[in-house]
Amino acid sequence: QVQLVESGGGLVQAGGSLRLSCAASGRTFSTYDMAWFRQAPGKEREFAARSWSGGATYYADSVKGRFTISRDNAKNTVYLQMNSLKPEDTAVYYCAARKNVLNKYEYWGQGTQVTVSS
Fold first, then answer.
1. Rg (CA), the chain
2. In 10 A of CB 61, how many CB atoms?
3. 39 with 94: CB under 8 angstroms?
4. Is the confidence at residue 55, as pLDDT, over 90?
5. pLDDT at site 101
6. Exposed, middle or buried, 110 (CB in 10 Å: 0-12/13-18/19+)?
7. In this predicted structure, what is the pLDDT of residue 28?
8. Residue 53: what pLDDT?
């Protein structure tokens, strides 16, 4: 069982930056595929960024070039650095983990609110 706890959300003006953190429990964090999703008010949850256990990353087009996902396996933590934030980035951001890339993400955090004012 993996427990995920996000932090770092808040209110920021358009053009600003935030860094989200997701701390994971467990001793095999480095082997997990980690991702960030987000859910805006009235919309379905959508994928934002992903970090494979081997270190490769992948981004949704909507955040590519502005967001950076990274991980510190020694600290069991994955980060999402968000730059050049836009009002449309306003959402609850969720950290997710899965052991097998062929499976759905099976572990989720409680979410952290990001609000970008115009």
1. 13
2. 6
3. yes
4. no
5. 85
6. exposed
7. 87
8. 87
